[in-house]
Structure formats: structure tokens, C-alpha cells
Amino acid sequence: MMRPKTQDERDLLLYDSRLQRPVRMKTPEFERNGRIRHVIFSGQFTVPFLEELAGIADMIRMLSKSREGQDFLINLLPHKRAMLYFTQPSTRTFLSFNNACHILGMRTSEIRDPSTSSEVKGESFEDSIRTFSSYVDVIIMRTKESGRAAQAADLMNGIPRPVPVINAGSGSDQHPTQALLDIYTLQRSFEEHGGIDGKVIGMMGDLKRGRTVRSLCYLMKNYQGVRLVFIAPEQFAMQPDVKAHLDEHRIPYHETTRLDEALPSLDALYVTRMQTEWDTAGESRSVDLSRFSIGAPQLTRLKRDAIIMHPLPRGPEIDPSVDQDPRAMYWRQERNGMWMRAAVLMKIFGAEDRLSEIDPR
Q1: Are 125 and 27 within one domain?
Q2: How many domains does the chain fold into?
Q3: pLDDT category of residue 297 using cuts at 50, 70 and 90
Q4: Catalytic: which of 37, 175, 209, 310?
Q5: Is 148 known to be catalytic?
Q6: Is 2 within the bounds of a domain?
Q7: Beta bridge partners of 36
Q8: Is the same domain home to 215 and 150?
Q9: Which helix (H) or strand (E) holds 230?
């Protein structure tokens, strides 16, 4: 094993041992006085928290429909500043968070190109994060390396002026706010059909490296009678740690490479693209994508009241003709991200209590 060469590498290796602890051991470290402080893992969320966030997101969505409501929202957090530290390419998550901040009146700063950060001069990751915390009230970060958001939160917990850290995507590991918006989309889609409890949810594509499906799986412990179906090429099957979590919480799952056989039983199909950015030798090219794609022929085998989701951006795994089908929820899912991320920011800063001051109608 090669020894870490830099202090930054040594810091991440040291934190990695703490990162491997069970989520239940780490969750208290991401709270303060009973209120959520950092958003790092999807496994830290409980049913009451998920329901409260959905209620806040509903209120924000309704208030945004009127000028009076927009003016109310923009005056909730105008005294707060956010740092969008996105050193991994992002369009939707960045715009979603940026606009969520603006809805609430928050000012934003950003770093999207690693070459503009002092890290290229040799500054450690921890020194960079501490520098950001001197100027802003929350750090929203997306990195190519797993564990960075948790490392930043751990640092914040030990300095005189700590600020919240929100994980907007950490390597191929976790994407907790994507899981929140996915749950919100599922809740809204099934609110007239008994909610998420008892539903059969399929996840298809690159499940090995897809952090969105990983994060969503960790939330399934909050619902009763849910069954999961993993539809993936054998070399891109769901990782053992996720399956161990499902086994621990007695959440049944089935693995298959046959989409046509799985479709009739599904209440929701969560489609993901091949994560080619994680290829080391072009391994994604060996996949026959036609077996893990959905178009008009597959729609005929899907329930009339089922839904289709996708974290976007998409590739050939969803034919554009599917967009016109009422079961296609991925564009609504994307917009839900803005409402849910605004709800997270309101909850972190304790602004949700002020929603009682205005009638959303």
C-alpha cells in the first residue's frame, strides 16, 4: 500500500476511519441542540424530519406562486451568506442550490473551478474550508472525492466559528439532498395511493457507482413494506455495503438483469445513467444499454399509475418520447429539488417557524 504523500491525503486517511463508523454513531455529531446542523448522509434522516421537510417544501412551493409570497420568502434569510464550493462539474445541483438560496434572500459566493482555489498552491483542504467559514454562514460542497463533506463537518465541529456543511455530492458515495428530493417526489406522487409504504421501487442502471440510488436506499428504512428491485449489468450491481444496510433493516430486495420481467411489478422505476466519469479503462463501453433503457415498448409493461424518475442528466437510457408520458416525473423531480433544498436551508437556520406568519393561498 502506498503511503499518503501530503498532509491533505493524511488528513483524509485519518478521517476515513471515523467515516466508516455506523451512521447512528455519527448522526449526533451533525446536530446542535436537537436541530440538524450538517447534512452529510441520507441515513441521518428520520420519518418526522422527512415529513417536516416535505411540509416546508410544500409551503415554499405555494408561496412562490404569488408576489406576496415571494416577497415574504426573500426576506427570511437576507442576512445569511452561502458558499457554493463545487469542484466537481454540476449543472442541476448547483443551479438548484443557487436558486434555493436566492428564493430565501441569501447571497452566494462560488468556486466551481479547482484551479481558482488556493489548493493549487498547496493549501490543504481543511485550510480552504476554514477560510470559507470566515466569510459565509453555510458551505454547500460537491467534490469528486468521497468523504470530503464529512471531513469538513468534522472540522467545523472543532473551531470557534463553525458553520453548517451541506453535502451536495461526495464522490460516488453520498448525495443526501438528492435523496431528499427523491423522497419528496415519491411522497407527492403516491399521496393518493397510500404513500411510499408497501411500494415496489425499481432502480436501474449503474447502481455500483450511482450515489443517487445509494443515498435513496439508505432512506428506505423509514418506510414499511417497501420492496426494492435492482436492475443492472452484473459488473455494475449494487454495492455490498448498501445491501448489508438493507439486510440489517429487513428491507427485501431482488437483483436482476431483465428489465422486461421486472417492469410489471414496479410502482416506481428510478433510472440512472452509466457513470462514465468513474471509468478507468472504458468499462462502461461493454454494457449493452438497450437492455437497461426505457422507451415506448417498455411503457406498455409498466403500471398505469407507476412513475418514472431519473436524477438527470440522462443519456440513451430514457428515450425523449417518454417525456410526454404522464408517468414521467423526472422534470418535476428536478424542480422539486429547488423547493426541498430551500426547505433544508430554512430548517438549518431555524426560519421555518416564520411560515406561520403568512397564508400561502
Answers
A1: yes
A2: 2
A3: very high
A4: 175
A5: no
A6: no
A7: 31
A8: no
A9: strand 227-231
Residues 184 and 117 in one domain: no
Is 295 within the bounds of a domain? yes
3, 24, 67, 121: the active-site residue: 121
- CA neighbor of 208 nearest in space, from 190, 231, 185: 231
Same-domain check for residues 296 and 153: no
At 70-120, the pLDDT tens digits run 999 999 999 999 999 999 888 899 999 999 999 999 999 999 876 666 665
Same domain, 345 and 304: no
Sequential DSSP letters for 55-92: HHHHHHHHHTTSHHHHHHHHTTSTT-EEEEEE-S--SH
Tens digits of residue pLDDT in 4-56: 566 555 555 555 555 555 555 555 666 766 678 999 998 889 999 999 999 99
Catalytic annotation on 142?
Answer: yes
Whether 175 is a known active-site residue: answer yes
What is the domain range of residue 262? 176-276+284-334
Active-site residue, 121 included: yes
Average pLDDT over residues 146-159: 90
Q: What is the CATH classification number for the domain harbouring 343?
A: 3.40.50.1370
Which has the higher per-residue pLDDT, 42 or 309?
309
The C-alpha atoms of residue 59 and residue 56 are separated, in whole angstroms, by 5
Catalytic residue among 37, 38, 142, 214: 142
Residue 258 among the catalytic residues = no
4 inside domain:
no
Say if residues 66 and 35 touch (Cβ distance below 8 Å): no
Alpha-carbon dihedral angle through residues 114, 115, 119, 121, given to the nearest 10 degrees: 170
Of 26, 37, 93, 177, which residue is the catalytic one? 93
Q: Are residues 180 and 110 both part of a single domain?
A: no
pLDDT digits (tens, 9 = 90+) for 263-291: 999 999 999 998 878 778 878 888 888 89
